[in-house]
């Protein structure tokens, strides 16, 4: 579950960097308290009260409809109770970390954008978590807020080189690639490292490392939704910050499709909720974003683009589905065609051979009788000679159709060759096979075939049958069964045709 370890020389650089972001004493003590198994409300309130700015914020947060509590209180102790211990700690951490880190003037230069992105990510993360029930909301807020903190770390450790890398990268993936190439680390790794140094709860560095380097991480299943929210939150923040709303929205939509995707309505709701929460967050975190009109304009545009993108996706998906089922249907049709004799529509010899060995094995295994019958048209040559080959074809097709109409679902008719058919009768003993063949023979005898305009003829057939797994009739070999049925047919022909004989 641990990320690939940071290179020791990089860790050393980070550890001994004098400009590294530091936490205030109160923030550090809150972090320490967060790790204790038993936390006392009074102790926590006492600690928060040491920082007057933090106290005001916690009271304000407790009264904030944004955080889902609409009760009024002016008292820190009550505020902590209203928020609950866990939320108070997490919110205090969010406030103190932002404050401590923002206070460092040398690092503030050019980092307004960074902090805006952090806060927007925090809001989006919290909202995503609310929509997909991915964990405690304040923890999501904190994780969203801090997941890019590694940028601050790298900016502090490499003050000369890092701004150029930031400039040279057009997006988040690009920045990570640049960092790995030039600094042998990335801001995900650096962020996770400093969070562990500060002693933040493990799930926060873990989520940070996992979203920046998913291949190197084996994260517990229970954190997957949490991590997905943190990962997506930065893309949602970019929708508000990037000048090209369209491409930022497309990136957010693609990032969403990579994880346990949320539906478009949920993403639209998240965008709206983030926009609604901005004024409150601006106040709580003392930061200005953009005008309400600007925010609403961006949100409307992004929501529209999201809807359009999803509609396109749905359209592509249903088109792909339609094509796939068409292909499947065609494949089935082609396969069926490849098994059939084109003239008679009966199965062909190749498929019959395949089926015969399968059925023979199954009959042997289940000890069930299997009968095989050969059916051969009588004096068929005369039909060809007298009425022509085409007329012969008509008769062959008519006979096949007539035989098929007399069969059950499991029976299997194939054209064995020329004017000879073969019939496979699973679960049928010889006596029954004889009766079936007799019925077919009698039916064919009465069938009329049109061989020329207004000229009908009748034809007869002879049949011979043999059985496998029928009392004492157990052929060990398939060839014996075929030979026995063939001999019976020969006998039927010799005995005068238009009759059925069975192998003894
Ligand atoms: N029209 C047509 N005739 C075929 C086809 N396949 C085989 N035949 C003909 O079937 C006839 C079979 O003749 P024979 O083997 O002498 O058998 P028969 O005339 O039926 O006589 P018995 O089987 O002894 O009753 C030949 O004339 C073949 O040309 C086909 O696909 N279409």
UniProtKB/TrEMBL annotation:
<dbReference type="InterPro" id="IPR013976">
    <property type="entry name" value="HDOD"/>
</dbReference>
<dbReference type="GO" id="GO:1902201">
    <property type="term" value="P:negative regulation of bacterial-type flagellum-dependent cell motility"/>
</dbReference>
<dbReference type="GO" id="GO:0052621">
    <property type="term" value="F:diguanylate cyclase activity"/>
</dbReference>
<dbReference type="Pfam" id="PF00990">
    <property type="entry name" value="GGDEF"/>
</dbReference>
<dbReference type="InterPro" id="IPR043128">
    <property type="entry name" value="Rev_trsase/Diguanyl_cyclase"/>
</dbReference>
<feature type="domain" description="HDOD">
    <location>
        <begin position="20"/>
        <end position="214"/>
    </location>
</feature>
<feature type="domain" description="GGDEF">
    <location>
        <begin position="368"/>
        <end position="504"/>
    </location>
</feature>
<dbReference type="InterPro" id="IPR029787">
    <property type="entry name" value="Nucleotide_cyclase"/>
</dbReference>
<dbReference type="InterPro" id="IPR000160">
    <property type="entry name" value="GGDEF_dom"/>
</dbReference>
<dbReference type="Pfam" id="PF08668">
    <property type="entry name" value="HDOD"/>
</dbReference>
<dbReference type="GO" id="GO:0005886">
    <property type="term" value="C:plasma membrane"/>
</dbReference>
<dbReference type="InterPro" id="IPR050469">
    <property type="entry name" value="Diguanylate_Cyclase"/>
</dbReference>
<dbReference type="GO" id="GO:0043709">
    <property type="term" value="P:cell adhesion involved in single-species biofilm formation"/>
</dbReference>
<protein>
    <recommendedName>
        <fullName>diguanylate cyclase</fullName>
        <ecNumber>2.7.7.65</ecNumber>
    </recommendedName>
</protein>
């Amino acid at each position: 579950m641990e990320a690939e370890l940071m290179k020791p020389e990089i860790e050393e650089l980070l550890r001994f960097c004098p400009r590294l972001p530091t936490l205030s004493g109160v923030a550090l003590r809150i972090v320490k308290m967060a790790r204790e198994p038993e936390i006392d409300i009074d102790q926590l309130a006492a600690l928060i009260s040491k920082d007057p700015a933090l106290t005001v914020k916690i009271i304000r947060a407790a009264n904030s409809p944004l955080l889902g509590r609409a009760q009024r209180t002016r008292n820190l102790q009550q505020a902590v109770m209203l928020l609950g211990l866990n939320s108070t700690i997490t919110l205090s951490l969010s406030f103190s970390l932002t404050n401590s880190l923002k206070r460092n003037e040398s690092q503030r230069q050019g980092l307004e954008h960074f902090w805006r992105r952090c806060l927007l990510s925090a809001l989006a993360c919290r909202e995503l978590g609310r929509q997909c029930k991915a964990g405690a909301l304040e923890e999501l807020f904190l994780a969203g807020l801090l997941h890019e903190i590694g940028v601050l770390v790298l900016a502090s450790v490499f003050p000369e080189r890092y701004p150029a890398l930031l400039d040279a990268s057009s997006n988040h993936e690009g920045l990570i690639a640049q960092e790995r190439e030039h600094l042998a680390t990335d801001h995900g790794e650096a962020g996770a490292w400093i969070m562990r140094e500060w002693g933040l709860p493990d799930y926060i560095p873990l989520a940070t490392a996992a979203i920046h380097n998913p291949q190197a991480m084996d994260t517990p299943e229970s954190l997957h939704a949490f991590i997905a929210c943190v990962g997506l939150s930065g893309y949602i923040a970019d929708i508000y910050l990037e000048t090209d709303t369209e491409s930022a929205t497309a990136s957010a939509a693609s990032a969403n499709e990579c994880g346990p995707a949320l539906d478009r309505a949920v993403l639209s709701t998240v965008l709206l909720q983030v926009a609604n929460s901005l004024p409150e967050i601006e106040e709580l975190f003392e930061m200005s974003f953009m005008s309400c009109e600007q925010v609403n304009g961006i949100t409307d545009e992004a929501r529209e683009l999201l809807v359009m993108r999803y509609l396109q996706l749905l359209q592509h998906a249903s088109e792909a589905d339609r094509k796939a089922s068409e292909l499947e249907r065609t494949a089935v049709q082609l396969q069926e065609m490849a098994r059939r004799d084109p003239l008679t529509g009966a199965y062909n010899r190749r498929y019959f051979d395949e089926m015969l060995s399968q059925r023979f094995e199954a009959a042997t295994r289940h000890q069930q009788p299997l009968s095989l019958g050969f059916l051969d048209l009588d004096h068929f040559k005369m039909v060809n000679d007298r009425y022509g080959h085409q007329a012969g074809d008509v008769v062959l097709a008519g006979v096949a159709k007539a035989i098929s109409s007399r069969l059950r679902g499991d029976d299997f008719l194939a054209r064995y060759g020329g004017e000879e058919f073969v019939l496979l009768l699973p679960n049928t003993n010889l006596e029954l096979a004889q009766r079936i063949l007799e019925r077919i023979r009698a039916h064919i005898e009465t069938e009329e075939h049109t061989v020329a305009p207004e000229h009908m003829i009748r034809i007869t057939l002879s049949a011979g049958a043999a059985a496998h797994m029928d009392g004492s009739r157990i052929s060990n070999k398939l060839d014996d069964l075929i030979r026995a049925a063939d001999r019976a047919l020969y006998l039927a022909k010799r005995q005068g045709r238009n009759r059925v004989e069975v192998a003894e």
